[in-house]
Prior knowledge:
The chain is of the alpha+beta class. It has two domains: 5-12 and 179-294, no CATH class; 18-174, Beta Polymerase, domain 2 (2-Layer Sandwich), CATH 3.30.460. It is built from nine helices and seven strands; from the N terminus they run H-H-E-E-H-H-E-E-E-E-E-H-H-H-H-H. It has helices at residues 5-11, 18-31, 82-91, 99-114, 176-189, 194-210, 221-229, 240-253, 278-294; strands at 43-48, 63-76, 118-120, 125-127, 136-149, 157-165, 171-174. Strands 1, 2, 3, 4, 5, 6 and 7 form a seven-stranded mixed beta sheet that branches. Helix 1 packs across helix 6, helix 6 packs across helix 7 (221-229) and helix 6 packs across helix 9. The mean pLDDT is 94.
Amino acid sequence: xxxxxxxxxxxxxxxxxxxxxxxxxxxxxxxxxxxxxxxxxxxxxxxxxxxxxxxxxxxxxxxxxxxxxxxxxxxxxxxxxxxxxxxxxxxxxxxxxxxxxxxxxxxxxxxxxxxxxxxxxxxxxxxxxxxxxxxxxxxxxxxxxxxxxxxxxxxxxxxxxxxxxxxxxxxxxxxxxxxxxxxxxxxxxxxxxxxxxxxxxxxxxxxxxxxxxxxxxxxxxxxxxxxxxxxxxxxxxxxxxxxxxxxxxxxxxxxxxxxxxxxxxxxxxxxxxxxxxxxxxxxxxxxxxxxxxxx
Length: 295
């Protein structure tokens, strides 16, 4: 037995976007209002997550919005040698307006507009939805630049991203724009099968959660995208069943310890704040195999 061609085809479809678009446009208007206390600061508002990457499926609820402070920039110098770090430090200049001040202003402005619907979490600010508005997570962050080389002559080599801080002071780095660009390139390299297949795996995950086969939270969408990003482009395509089976078989046989996130800046599997526990990945894939066999 196997999951049918028709079921896989249904699962490949993108979920509805009308209410999502309305929620985002309304929230963007609030965040970008000239009456806000931070309006004269240098900032940018953009999407991240499933809707941004067009991998959303039916039932996806959260709209992931980023508001990034651009007047300051944090740096990741871990890949530079001592000489390069010293060269960078000699050229830097400190900013006067802090991310803490910016976040406080953004939260106060959201509370003014949405009242008790605003819930400040460890990472993002949740704005609870209502009949006409989806839930929205607003991530307040700053620019980040990860340097890979800082030569005495010539241009530095770096990747731009974002960062924010947990309540305990831990700095979290991420690269949503790089993630999105890489997923789009992968989609093109697979003759537009990559995002199609991500949606299949996401819908299958949701079905297994509904049937209590796996726990909610075992396989976040971000990590499913990263998991499939590592599959070679030539494994995608054919019929729905052939595509699904070839991708799954390759994942089961691969050395997943070498997998990277779709942004290519972190390992996919690990125990950090931006990695997926290897045991969770194995459990998810094992459940996918068992579900397919029982279908």
